[in-house]
Fold this sequence. Notes:
YlxR domain-containing protein, alpha+beta, YlxR-like_sf, YlxR, 88 residues, Hypothetical Cytosolic Protein, Chain: A, YlxR_dom, single chain, three-stranded antiparallel beta sheet, two-stranded antiparallel ribbon, 3 helices
Amino acid sequence: xxxxxxxxxxxxxxxxxxVPKKQLIRVVRNKEGExxxxxxxxxxxxxxxxxxxxxxxxxxxKTKVLNKHLNATVSDxxxxxxxxxxxx
Length: 88
């Protein structure tokens, strides 16, 4: 019996849904306090996951939920980058 590797689940900070990690976008704050979008999902730092969905990202921008999760100020450039990734 071959054991299927379990897919890692992560929770979207906006929708609170548990989703396979690959379907989410990770935003990271590193030790220096820089906030950036982590395409690899492996960068060091405090991470928060967002659903790969335009409405979710707009909601995150409005509610500033990433600021709370990352204990940092998330700039509009980050949200713009997220939105451009979603629309790809």
